[in-house]
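Researcher: Structure for this, please.
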Amino acid sequence: GPDSDAEVTRSMLRRAGVVLAIAGIALAVDQWTKMLVERNLGPGAPRATIPLLGDWFALEYAQNRGAAFGLFPGASGAVATAAALVLAGVVVYALRRPPAWLLSIGAGLVVGGAVGNLIDRVRLGYVTDFIAVGAWPNFNVADAAVTVGVALLALDALAESRHETRRERVSEADERPT
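Model: Predicted structure, token format:
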């Protein structure tokens, strides 16, 4: 009825608001940290690295002209297009699923991180990376947000799958003759 349609719409708008708020925070932190790094460690700065834990953990300016972790160097346009498509898919997925905190937080982190790196690709032609951990390729706040967001989406999907299996078992038990 009309009440249930209105409630569904309100629920989707609330969820979209949560996703957008989290995305906005992730995007703001990403862009702010990249600005600080560009200013203090980027081209023309007196140094490009600030060691934090010896050689193992440092802030180290790098330009990533490829995909995540420097894969596919020079494919910035294709990477940006793929990121935009994934971004659209995550938003549609999040809005069509039943409301859940893991889902909303995960989708917000993925959206904020993806938009942060897309802004860099469009504005600069590369992504500013600056977190150096061991032998791992340098990354940034947006990359971390996307990684954590995808992990939360996977946990949410796993939880939903387990919940669905439980519902099916209960339904089958209810259908058995007594």
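Researcher: Any notable elements?
Model: The chain has a mean pLDDT of 83. The radius of gyration is 21 Å.
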